[in-house]
Amino acid sequence: MWENRRMDNTDLFICIDHVGLAVADLDEAIKFHTEVFGWRVLHREVNEEQGVAEAMMGTGSQLPESAQIQLLAPLNENSTIAKWLTRNGGPGMQQLCYRVADIDAVSATLRERGVRLLYPEPKTGTGGARINFVHPKDAGGVLLELTQPGTGH
Ligand code: MC0
Prior knowledge:
Strand order of the largest sheet: 2-3-4-1-5-8-7-6
Order of helices and strands: EHEEEHEHEEE
Helix content: 10-25%
Number of helices: 3
Distance between the termini: 31 Å
Shape: globular
Radius of gyration: 16 Å
Bound molecules: (S)-Methylmalonyl-Coenzyme A
């Protein structure tokens, strides 16, 4: 059953890095996810370029391969998260993020396969990661982030 679970050179992605939830208020969302679901805050930061205040949530026994929950709150009304919250009518799942080893190589392969990436070059994401996004229209209706973790991951 698990015999195909080895990385081979046709794999583009290492694992699901995180699932991003858009929230209106970061502190309230952290309170909810810690008190109700027992998640812990692993990391918090503000990313001005992306227009977000974020918290990465995980468990104490987290393996490096385990996906995290990313809470994303808008920094201002121009933030993509603010737009998403308005269009969606409230909080919800905004993105799915795959971890990659080499974002330049993976981006080149995806572009060859006709997939649109949002940025010509990767930008800076959580913990100094290099990130880019596949347009939701080219990913089955899901905003797909690619992340190549920084050294602080
Ligand atoms: C928009 N659409 C989505 C979507 N956002 N579909 C699925 N998931 C989403 N999150 C759909 C709309 O429903 C619409 O479909 C079409 O895409 C175009 O929408 P739009 O109104 O033009 O949308 P915009 O202007 O909000 O742009 C969408 C776009 C934007 C994906 C380009 O959200 C973007 O640039 N996202 C990447 C950056 C980002 O999300 N940053 C925040 C996370 P219809 O059918 O109505 O045409 S920062 C982060 O994640 C970092 C910190 C990290 O993890 O390291």
